Amino acid sequence: MTASSKIALVTGGSRGLGKDMALSLAKKGTDIILTYNSRQDEAQAVVAAIQALGRKAAALQLNAGEVAGFSTFAGELTKTLAATFGTDHFDFLINNAGIAGYTPLGQVTEAEFDQLTNVHYKGVFFLTQTLLPIMNDGGGIVNISSGLARFSYPGSAVYGSLKGAVEVLTRYMAKELGARGIRANVVAPGPVATDFGGGRIRDNEEYNRQLSSLTALGRVGLPEDIGGVVAFLCSEDARWVNAQRIEVAGGILI
Q: Which of 18, 40, 165, 230 has its CA 20 to 30 A from that of 145?
């Protein structure tokens, strides 16, 4: 592997924002490992698109909320790094995998709370912990948060507060991993028109229009608005950017 050939692991990289992150990183010359939960066909299509850009790529199955499976995943990742990339370490971890939650505060069940917590906070914490031994010094972590950690929208109490926790965790990561030269930053998208949450923002014209009216640039986001910012944070141009939160939301509720 040449010194310029960096490797990024993008969780939830088979669709939506994660797909665009993976493609944006590949366009900047980074090789990609992406994870998927259930749609292997979608993941392999992204792998093919990355390979068409001239980069190496692979896809691995991962339930981002199932901590018990992380050690097995790390073993599979190590095998893939050796077989496909000719190395035993990777450079950038993008904790992107997520699920939606739109239940009003008074109706959230403990099961829903636990599922959201496992995916959006506990999973982020322990997956990062598990993979740190095979991350290269001088690499980086990008944790995906949400505009909902800054502003409040009914139904997002659990999701938004968990993203707030991830933002605090990111600062601790930056502090504790600084000795290894590993940077940790947050990208916080605003509303984006994807299939996330059943395509709620993309497909509901009235909801889309309402969110657009709250945004300085007059529209909701698109996946391609987000991936390039993640790619920037995984580049040499961002070598002095650390412990920062970048909201990529077109100026919503400012």
A: 40
pTM score above 0.85: yes
Instruction: Map residue 33 onto helix, strand or coil.
Output: strand
Helices (H) and strands (E) counted in the chain, each on its own, are 9, 7
Catalytic residue among 36, 121, 153, 159: 159
Residue that is written with structure tokens 């088979």 in the block: 14
pLDDT digits (tens, 9 = 90+) for 108-137: 999 999 999 999 999 999 999 999 999 999
Place of tokens 């109490």: 157
Nearest to 218 by CA among 206, 210, 229, 226: 210
Tell me the two tokens of residue 10: 């993008």
Res 199: pLDDT: 64
User: In this structure, what token pair is assigned to residue 107?
Assistant: 């109706």
Between 193 and 167, the more confident residue is: 167
Q: Give the total residue count for the chain.
A: 254
Check residue 85 and report its DSSP letter: I
Where is 184: in which H helix or E strand? strand 183-189
Q: Confirm if 160 and 152 have CB atoms less than 8 A apart.
A: yes
Confidence of residue 2 (pLDDT cuts 50, 70, 90): very low
Chain centroid, CA 101 distance in Å: 17
- CA–CA gap between residue 81 and residue 215 (Å, rounded): 42
CA distance 64 to 92: 17
Predicted local confidence at residue 205, as pLDDT: 80
Dist. CA 16–CA 132, nearest whole Å: 26
Q: Are 121 and 38 in contact (CB under 8 A)?
A: no
